Amino acid sequence: MFPLGTALLPGGELPLRVFEPRYRQMLTDHIEESDGRSTVRFGVVLIARGSEVGGGEVRCEVGTMARADVTDRLPDGRALLSGTGTHRFRIVEWLPDDPYPLARVEALPEPAPSEADLERLHSIDQRLRAVMRETLEAAGKDADTIFAALDIIDADPLTADLSPIYRWANRLQVEPHDQQRLLEAADAAGQLDVLDDVMEGLEARAAFGRD
């Protein structure tokens, strides 16, 4: 397990610098070599209180499994990782941190958005684009070009199996607190409630900037 000051959503990217002795040991114990690539799998949980360094932090109970490529590793075990979130899990039991955080977990099923949920997500997306268009055009930038790039990202076949709710949230880079609310939501409607709150905050900030 890798408790962090940020949450990770399925499909989200996670660059990591491994330098603490406990995580260097974790990397040594769990690194996998295949087809010339070095990879490691671990769970990521958001730290509710405390620091990433040193231990003793209070951790959230729902997180995301990550698969990471080891992009650079020094002889002393320090390393750079480039990870991606794969699926959610819930902590069943925290085990002693010996020599690094360990837990028993259960995988969580991913909420399947209904047609009504997808329509609601589309409405939220249109609200985002309206805010973005106003902001970009005020800065003298071409909004349509940026929207076209977003559409290409959304159509990436590598994310075809990923919930469109996660795709939307990862694209927007939702704050850790809201990412955690997304992870803990029981269904797609609950996740959309979170995105609606995020969108209301963006709209309020945009309106404040116009005043």
From TrEMBL:
Residue span(s) of domain Lon N-terminal: 1-203
Source species, domain of life: Bacteria
Annotated Gene3D superfamilies: LON domain-like
One Pfam family this sequence matches: LON_substr_bdg
The name this protein goes by in its record: LON peptidase substrate-binding domain-containing protein
